[in-house]
Structures are given as C-alpha cells and as structure tokens.
Amino acid sequence: TRRIALAARPVGEPRASDFRTEQTELPALRDGDVLLRIVYLSLDPYMRGRMSTARSYAQPMEIGDTMVGGTVAQVVESRARSLAVGDYVLSYSGWQTHAVAPARLLRKLDPRLAPLSTALGVLGMPGFTAYVGLKEIGKPLAGETLVVAAASGPVGATVGQLAKIRHARIVGIAGGAEKCRYLVDELNFDEAIDHRAADFAAQLEDACPRGIDVYFENVGGAVWSAVLPLLNDFARIPVCGLVAQYNATDVPAGPDRMPGLMREILSRHLTLRGFIQSDFAHLQRDFEREMSVWLQAGRIRYREDIVDGLDHAPEAFIGLLRGKNFGKLIVRVADE
Ligand code: NDP
C-alpha cells in the first residue's frame, strides 16, 4: 500500500514536512478479514487534534502512524462470509491506497441508495453531528434565530437546513462572498455573513434583530466573541468544534474574559454543552432513516469538494483549516 504517515507533530499550522508518503507491506489476511481498495478518503478538522499531544477526547497518533480517517472502499479479496469481492464498505482505513480490515468493523454500503461519497458527508459522520447537535442540544423552535459558522461545510450546511425544516430563521457565517451567496441562493439561509469583513460584528447584529436563540458553535475565536453579546435568555449553544483555534499555539493576549463569560452564562440562563457525535450512537438509525428521506425529497442539499489523488491529501488538509475547501472535503484515492 502507499500511505501517508505523520512525520512530525505540527507547531501551529501543519506543513507539508509534517507528512511522509511511503510504500509499506500489508499484513496477510486472516479469517474474517478483507483486503480493501480505498476509493474515497474523508478529510476532517478533528485530524489536526490527533496530530498533536494536547489533551483531547481521542488518543493522539504516534509519529510514523498512518494518518487516520474515514474511507469508502471496495473489497478486492475476502476471507469473511459477510462481504464479497466488489462490495463497497465504510471503513476507517486512513490515508492509504489499500488496507486489510476485519469485516465486522465495516459497514456495507449500497451504491444504488445514495452516491458512495455521501457516506463520508451528509449521510455520514458530519451529517450525523449536525443532526444530533440540533436534536439533543440546540432544539431550535419555529421563529427562533439560529446562527451557525463554517456554514458551507458539511456540518454547518446541514445544521442550517435542518433548522430550516423546523422553521427557524437561519443566519450563516462563512468566509468569502461566494460561500455566502451559496448559503442564501442554494440552501435558503435567511442571511449569510462573511466573517472576514471588517465590520463583521456589526453585520451580525443587523442580521439578528431579535437576538440569537441557538448558536451552533463550529469555530470559536472571533466569531464566538461577536455572537456572545447577541445571545438571548435561555439560548442554547451546542459546542461542536473550535476550528479557528486548532492551529493556535498559545492563548491570545489581553484581559481575562473568563469571569465576564461566567456572568453571561448565569445571568442569561445560557446552556453551553460540548458534545462528540459518538455520544449519541443510539440515534444513528433514526438519522439514517430521516436524512435519506430529506435528501431524496431535496429538502437537504449538499456540496462536495473532491480532490484527486492521495498525494494531494496533505495540501488539501492544510487548506481545510484555512477555509480553502468549499463543501465536504474528500480525496478521490481511486475511481469507483
Ligand atoms: P468544514 O468543511 O466546515 O471546514 C472547516 C471550515 O471552518 C473551513 O472551511 C472554514 O470555512 C472554517 N474556518 C476555519 N477557520 C476559521 C476561522 N478562523 N473563523 C471562522 N471559520 C473558520 O468542516 P466540518 O463541517 O467537517 O466541521 C465543522 C466543525 O465541526 C469543526 O470545528 C469540526 O471540528 C467540528 N466537528 C465536530 C464533531 C463532534 O463530534 N463534535 C464531529 C464533526 C465535526 P470558512 O471559509 O467559512 O471560514
């Protein structure tokens, strides 16, 4: 297999030299195993956390490990009764061209039900994250205002559209005019704001004349600072991700704003709740059933940003943390 391994722990923004491409031998198949040909590799912001040793919900990778990641793959050899040659599966095989895996850890995919790549996006982990964060924590009501950033990405775009199905008013935040136009024109968001605009905080305030009832937190940093003063009493904040901070090397200088934040949480009855999508594994079946219906009915739309070739994965991943992607970022490792 050709694989990309973690060569060094990044300091700040990852660099090409933090990754190493190499050729390795795969282990022999044992009973119950299959040999996989990777077709699609998902690139996700959480991978930045796995590259460093900072305390997190998941174990860090070791130097020399294959970069982790969700994949869609095809079975090319099988020693498992449940999977035949030619079957497609969802696997967690990481940044490589081939892998050996026990069939019991794989989920078979039906290419007739949905495009295979959606198993990594809208019908996969990011879509599920949006679904559970809203259902269990955000709980937007009709007429309430929901704000979400990284709004053109797979989590944010799904959050906005799901909240729209619940008749909330949706304000999306994204980087650049093209992404903002997409949110309003294609996804029916009520407003979209560019977080890079000099008067971003003022624009956000204008877009939320009745304050913010749900803030789905994907980015942290300056966006969160602009959102906080606009939160209504009893606002709900699913804390899903802090992508603006993943490359940070130290805390920003300035006064300690923690006491002020605690006062806001108390006096405005705020609910902030961090979550990891796997906390809600029991909702997976409901998600798949409901999301398939919404997708087929065209009520949820999605956009993918597909990069060709495993060798381009490091560069694409570095771009993801800078907002260079437009839609769910996927590497096409091989043709279907
Ligand atoms: P995206 O495809 O949306 O990619 C990340 C986006 O973040 C970029 O495209 C960029 O969009 C935006 N961004 C980067 N830096 C900044 C910044 N400084 N300020 C504002 N926006 C920024 O990723 P996903 O949809 O896959 O993930 C979204 C979030 O959800 C991430 O924080 C991720 O870690 C989190 N997540 C959490 C899970 C959980 O279980 N808790 C599971 C899955 C994802 P733009 O151009 O618009 O700025």
- Tally the structural domains: 2
Distance between the termini: 18 Å
Report the sheet with the most strands, covering strand number, pairing sense and barrel closure. 7 strands, mixed
Please tell me the CATH architecture of the largest domain by its name.
Answer: 3-Layer(aba) Sandwich
CATH topology of the largest domain: Rossmann fold
Q: How much of the residues is beta strand, in percent? A: 15-25%
Radius of gyration: 21 Å
- Compute the average pLDDT: 97
What is the CATH top level name of the largest domain?
Answer: Alpha Beta
Q: How many helix segments?
A: 9
Helix fraction bin = 25-40%
What does this entry show, briefly?
The protein is an alpha/beta fold. The chain has 2 domains: 2-120 and 303-332, Alpha-Beta Complex (Quinone Oxidoreductase, Chain A, domain 1); 125-278, NAD(P)-binding Rossmann-like Domain (Rossmann fold).
